[in-house]
Amino acid sequence: MLAISLAQVPIAFEQRVTSAVKGRGIDISGDYTSGTLLASSILSIFLICAICVVTAYFMRGRLKAWQFVMLVLLLFLPTTINETKGTLFLLPIGLSVVFLVGMRKGFRLKAIGWLVLVTATTVASFWTMYDYLGRAA
Fold it and tell me: 4-32: b or e for each residue (b if 16 or more CB lie within 10 Å)?
């Protein structure tokens, strides 16, 4: 699943660049950025699920912090360039469920801190990218 998820990154970037070049002055949105999936919304939901699985692996100690951050950033990038606004709603819900279900006793305070950090970072980066792409188009 991770290999398929990471394969979406270069494909989504290529689709975004290609659709912007074809537009040439026309306001092109990220609706045409779907990776290998059928629609941009499906891509976002798939990658949100992948982020939740990566988060669960991190919480169980199977990923180091730098691996977790790198994977979350890579998996989150296609959701920012396809501009699916549902990400702002679905990602915090998915992460909250993962953190609430997967918390171990000694990890609860740390887990809540990571949840706040990851949610704030993803919302801020989505907002920034969405604003930047909206002005560039």
Answer: ebeebbebbeebbeebbeeeeeeebbbeb
